[in-house]
Amino acid sequence: MGAGGPRRGAGPPDGGWGWAVLGACFVVTGFAYGFPKAVSVFFRALMRDFGAGYSDTAWVSSIMLAMLYGTGPVSSILVTRFGCRPVMLVGGLLASAGMVLASFATRLLELYLTAGVLTGLGLALNFQPSLIMLGLYFERRRPLANGLAAAGSPVFLSALSPLGQQLLEHFGWRGGFLLLGGLLLHCCACGAVMRPPPGPGPRPRGDSADGAPGEAEAERAGLRLREAPSGGRSRRRLLDVAVCADRAFGVYAITKFLMALGLFVPAILLVNYAKDAGVPDADAAFLLSIVGFVDIVARPACGALAGLARLRPHVAYLFSLALMANGITDLSSARARSYGALVAFCVAFGLSYGMVGALQFEVLMAAVGSHRFPSALGLVLLVEAVAVLIGPPSAGRLVDALRNYEVIFYLAGSEVALAGVFMAVATKCCLHGRRSQDTRPSQGAGGTASDSEDAEAPGDSEALPAGAEEPGSLEAREVPSPGAAAPEAQAEPGREPKPV
């Protein structure tokens, strides 16, 4: 990653150390999505020790999930300022410390603050940077990489729940929390793996030329740098909220909000629904295992399918198809009462759920580009946090009020199917024309450039001194070159551009 790095024109490695990054992302994704659900095995012991109800105890997982989704913009800002690896190392320590401190809790409020807030924040600071770094290492194989990384969620959920049960039986909930806190230190090891990929030109290791810590990694993450008015040190845009004005981002954010309202509801209510239908407890619990097993296979398979040359340009439509399939599965299974019908529902639900999980971040990367992905991901997770706090709790209240699961399945299925229809229609009607215009070559006069992600530096056509590399952005990549200057940092008329 020093002077021997690849020169201008080289894209993401699509392999090499990227496979180690992919393995770390697999582990982090498994902890982020599986840990809040696995903690639920300790709820009965917590209810007994603290004399609390189930709803009060369940707030531990709810707060953990809210922190995972709701702190997305905070994670984006920290990644921009310090880089992926330092943020992940601190996040692993916070996640571990939260569970260790929770083992000494004497009140539920202390559990909310430790296991909920602290551990949830630590998981958030690991999850988002790992996805950003994965996108830097993979371009051609990115759909497959996203699918393999997403498979960590069902794998870890299937492993952490039995592990938590064993820890509870042998060490109690306090000992179990303490040991799970030690297990979360693996997030630090995953963070240490996240070294920045080779830059597009010669660059010193570690810090950038002006000495700002972590700036080289931030540049490689595609984060735009702007020169200060004084012409001295450069400053960063910590959170690119301008991405909200992008129509592709708006379509995706609305789709994710509608999706999150109903996507998780059937899985949460499935076991109780089966028990009310007369299914034995052991068989009802096995239904979730069926969903998990199918999900494990579906995610990498769908990622490989989306990476095919003919399908990758249409990944947004594939994502909308997965959403519609999931919604139709919920609608068609609302009256399923026999065990065979419930098994068929679990297979279909696991397949469509895995497709959604494998494609969701690939669609966002394709929509906004790699250089805007850190900010876009943080804002989307914030939108999703609002929907998660509305959807499942509202479904639980409706079940308590109506004593009827059929209405819940109809409602959840309609929301997810609507998200798929909206994604397909909006992509066709609102985005197709704009993308056609973006592919046309620029015909305007030189010397002006917009501040959008598609603008080219006006100095690209100017002559450079002998032996100097061209400082413009890479035209063959979505991620801008670290050497590219922002529009207002270009050479002024009459001044010779400096060699790189």
UniProtKB/TrEMBL annotation:
Gene3D superfamilies: MFS general substrate transporter like domains (1.20.1250.20). InterPro entries: MCT, MFS, MFS_dom, MFS_trans_sf, Proton-linked_MCT. The lineage of its organism: Eukaryota, Metazoa, Chordata, Craniata, Vertebrata. Residues 435-500 are annotated as: Disordered. Residues 480-492 have a biased composition (Low complexity). It comes from Odobenus rosmarus divergens (Pacific walrus). The keyword Cell membrane applies. It is a multi-pass membrane protein. It is found in: Basolateral cell membrane. Coiled coil: none annotated. The chain crosses the membrane at residues 17-39, 59-80, 87-105, 111-137, 144-163, 175-194, 257-274, 286-308, 339-361, 373-395, 407-426. One of its GO terms (molecular function) is monocarboxylic acid transmembrane transporter activity. Keywords: Cell membrane, Membrane, Symport, Transmembrane, Transmembrane helix, Transport. GO terms for cellular component: basolateral plasma membrane. Belongs to the major facilitator superfamily. Monocarboxylate porter (TC 2.A.1.13) family. This is Monocarboxylate transporter 3. Residues 18-431 form the Major facilitator superfamily (MFS) profile domain.
